[in-house]
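User: Could you walk me through two proteins back to back? I'd like the raw sequence and the structure tokens for each, with a short line separating them so I can tell where one ends and the next begins.

Assistant: Of course. Protein one, sequence then structure:
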Amino acid sequence: MIITFITGAHGNLGSEVSKLFPQALTPTHKELDIIDREKIFDYIAKHKPDRIIHLAALITVMKCEENRDLAWKTNILGTKNLIDACMDYNPDVYFVYMSTPCVFSGDPKEAPFTEESLPSPKNFYSLTKLLGEMVVRFSSLKKKLIIRGNLVPRKKWPYERAFTDRWGTYLFADDLAKAIKEVVDKELTGIVHLVGDKKLSMFELAKITTPDIKPMTLDDYEGPPLTQDMSLDTVKWHKYKITR
């Protein structure tokens, strides 16, 4: 039997991915913090997973700006802990890293971005995810995949308003989970974009689950720099329809 280990298995995406890998190892953050290098090494040594789907990350732009140390440790050093442990105890593991479209500039003139586009992170969150990618890409693991994709949970929009001038090729978390299972089952390697077949503004996306959502623009926003156009394209895989 293939042993699958999912980090971040209880987050918005991880909970959906875990449903599709019902036999997977899915420790909670409290049970296994990827920052704790010793515990990670002990866990990998004990279970020797055949594949790791690494979804755990600090993903909120504001939180990453406010606590850069935690973002660095989680998104970069946590990833390195997993890979180093695998190199010691199971170098043949298939390692899957979930990244983000935010590694790109977000310039509408440059979008959509393919797997071959040049990254240009705009905030600290984006930087940490790109550096996490680098940790994976330049590791000595033989089988590794970096996935980039836009996602939101299929639930009520968490804010009162949504941007009309920020865009992406979004999928709901359950849609993206199915796409992840598809590429994991085929053991794709390299970098792949799992993308929706339609470009939507955040406002259009929010209206699907929250019809009374109110519009806003980037002019109404105060905070760290945001990527404006997160639209992805793919030259390596196929696109998916966002289900409603």
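----
Protein two, same layout:
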Amino acid sequence: MINDQAASLRDLSKLKRRTEKHLKPVRRIAVTSGKGGVGKSNFSLNLGICLQKLGQRVLLVDADTNLANIDVLLGVNPEYTLADVVLGDRFINDIILDGPEGLKIMPAGSGVVDLVGLDSVVQDRISHGMSDLEANHDAVILDTGAGIAEAVIDFACGADEVIVITTPEPTAITDAYAVIKVISSRNAALKFHLLVNFAKNQEEADEVARKIKLVVENYLTVSIDILGFLPIDNHIPRAVARQKPFMLLNPRCPAALNIEMIARRLLKMPVRSSDSYPEGTLTGGSLFRHLFKGR
């Protein structure tokens, strides 16, 4: 039987953790978006690095099985990918890459569409491999594809929480709502976070977040947490061009400082004094109040 790669990988998102192996359950965070081009993979990579720097053991899974980008952002060419595991040629541990700051990365097979379906032996091997990996990590970040394709929704529904990324563009806002609607219809127990990327300033990001939050909470049976925003920052395209994470290349740029605050927010850790943050970060205004609401 021939299945597309994404369909074959759906079982990965549905694997049950073997909690007896954990002192505490691993935290699964899916990062997704309604449309492509919103900076999802770049955010996932830099968030993973930041969480690692804050003491977490992080596994970043490139779960975009058609347009994998994590390896491109890092300028690496993995010898083996998730496609090799699906085909049964490799074990999970064989494909794990050592990333920056101790981050572990599971690369996907970009552009590989048609693969042989998983037999029970391969399924069991993947299940055991994922369970062992999760036992050695505090957090797993799933960088999914964009849109509402079945594999994207399944990966998101297999997480504990979902970060939905949008931009101020009307199409991105509409598509963000659509992906929240579809995911929540499958798993209403998920915790949703919203991140606004490529915002001109905090006021623009705040307005976008307010609109989405209002519609989501009025028409869907879920609530959504305003996680924060990333400003338009020239350091980001420069870092992408150099294939270096901006968290490491320019750790004091506005985008990097905002990611640090977002990571601390996710970990419920205190932030540094606002005096140490330049203009363009999440210090002050209504998003700042959203950030610490309920703490």
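DSSP finds 14 helices and ten strands in the chain.

Let me know if you want the two compared in more detail.
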